[in-house]
Write a structure and sequence with these properties.
Elements (H helix, E strand, L loop, with lengths): L1 E4 L2 H12 L10 H14 L1 H12 L12 H10 L2 H19 L6 E4 L5 E8 L2 E5 L8 H14 L3 E6 L9 H10 L3 E4 L2 H10 L9 E3 L4 H10 L4 E2 L7 E6 L5 H12 L6 E6 L2 H15 L5 H11 E5 L3 H11 L3 E5 L3 H5 L7 E4 L5 H6 L25 E8 L2 H4 L3 H10 L3 H8 L7
Parallel strand pairs: 1-11, 4-5, 4-7, 5-6, 7-8, 9-10, 9-12, 10-11, 12-13
Antiparallel strand pairs: 2-3, 3-14
Helix pairs in contact: 2-3, 2-8, 2-9, 3-8, 4-7, 5-6, 5-7, 6-7, 8-9, 10-11, 17-18
Length: about 425
């Protein structure tokens, strides 16, 4: 990994370089995605099945697009029982954490007879997109479905690509069953996102679409936003580690590589106050690269977006972390809790040498669907609030409205909205 003494110029270049990975920069795919979305909207199942055959080389029809109980049982028989038990234990932690996020309707009554409040209502239906292909991500299945279930969403529709034989990855299916998906369909890519957004003869329309995917999925979610809600436009994975001379270089190197292996656009950045640690981590990274299975991806990721930045103080390290606003932030310092209080921008914060990023990916409980590409400056991790909507409740008696009605009339007339003013005035005709 390259080691840089951080200064304002290379910091500016680094920030600009990282932002190039944003899906919004891949506009050359947008027109093709829009065609797919528009065609599925217009033609429904016919287009969905045609695109599935074209892109996934699978023959899917109205008769076999939905995963059956027999297919689910077949998947259960194929998955290692020990892995099933691990997923069940992870589910306990994930559900327990998200239960604490749940909020309830409230009402505030006042002596003047007015009642103000907020009504919390779960979304009626949610679509969960799960990538297919060579890899399976059961952890993402759990992370997207569990908060929806905790929120009270009654219809949780999952879509995921099948292989050429029409089979869905069995681990993905088992995770969907354990988490509580109500329906699973064999559909992937931009065409699956469009099907969820507009509905087809086979796949129901949903109110919100969540879940990760490739650039075509990301751009499709962007294209349907407004017709439905979405969680976010997710970018490549990121990790930033703040470390001082007390950190274990082998642990830090391993954690950086845990994100770099995702894909060639993933970023892995160490910000440290110790030149010695920087050199030791670089050496450990080189050693790990000879041992790990995804060497080609790791090397390209580190070449593109891997940095070891040496700074003069922990405050400079904190400032750099806040500017980058990384998806995952590890703090491995003598007093990580003190450093954590100064962090403003991060998707998830991991404290201490034994709180490595994969702990959050799989088991601890907090959601691993996190803001990327600097959006941690204004976005939060996926949570129960993403699956509910809020309605304001307003009640005023005549006695409560009377003392303030002239104030409302004056406000409305200041905006030249005379019908607004009249709506209040008619209730007190003859009183002036």
């Amino acid at each position: 990994m390259r080691i840089l003494k951080l200064n304002e110029e290379n910091k500016k270049n680094l920030l600009e370089d990282l932002l190039k990975r944003d899906p919004n920069h891949y506009t050359q795919y947008a027109d093709a995605v829009q065609v797919i979305v528009d065609t599925v909207k217009a033609e429904g199942d016919r287009a969905l099945f045609a695109y599935t055959e074209k892109f996934d080389h699978a023959i899917v029809t109205a008769e076999n697009v939905r995963v059956t109980e027999d297919e689910l049982q077949e998947a259960m028989d194929q998955v290692d029982p020990e892995l099933v038990e691990v997923m069940k234990r992870a589910l306990v932690n994930i559900r327990s954490y998200h239960e604490k996020q749940k909020r309830y309707s409230w009402f505030d009554t006042r002596p003047d007879g007015s009642i103000l409040g907020q009504k919390i209502t779960p979304l009626a239906s949610v679509g969960v997109y799960v990538p297919g292909g060579k890899a399976a991500y059961p952890s993402s299945v759990l992370m997207n479905i569990v908060p929806a279930q905790v929120a009270g969403v009654s219809q949780i529709v999952m879509v995921t690509p099948c292989n050429a034989q029409g089979k869905v990855n069995p681990v993905t299916l088992v995770a969907a069953h354990l988490a509580g998906a109500t329906q699973v369909y064999k559909a992937g890519g931009a065409q699956a996102v469009a099907a969820l957004a507009f509905g087809t003869e086979s796949i129901p329309r949903v109110d919100k679409i969540v879940g990760p995917g490739n650039i075509y999925v990301a751009l499709a979610k962007k294209a349907v936003y407004g017709h439905v809600s979405i969680d976010s436009i997710a970018g490549p994975s990121e990790i930033l580690v703040i470390a001082d001379e007390t950190a274990n270089p082998r642990y830090v190197a391993a954690d950086l590589l845990s994100q770099a292996e995702h894909d060639e656009l993933a970023s892995a950045i160490l910000v440290t106050t110790s030149q010695k640690l920087a050199e030791e981590v670089a050496g450990e990274v080189d050693q790990f690269l000879q041992e790990l299975s995804r060497k080609e991806i790791l090397e390209k990721s580190l070449e593109n977006y891997g940095y070891i930045l040496v700074v003069d103080s922990l405050q400079e390290a904190v400032d750099t972390a806040n500017d980058i606003a990384s998806e995952h932030l590890e703090i491995v310092t003598a007093n990580p809790f003190e450093v954590m209080t100064k962090i403003r921008n991060a998707g998830a914060i991991f404290l201490g040498q034994y709180s490595s990023e994969p702990l959050g990916d799989y088991f601890a409980g907090p959601n691993h669907v996190l803001p990327t590409n600097g959006t941690a400056k204004f976005f939060s991790p996926l949570n129960v609030d993403d699956y509910v909507k809020k309605s304001s409740i307003i009640y005023y008696s005549k006695e409560a409205l009377e003392p303030v009605h002239e104030d409302i009339i004056k406000f409305a007339e200041a905006e030249h909205l005379t019908a607004h003013a009249n709506s209040i005035r008619v209730r007190f005709e003859g009183k002036e």
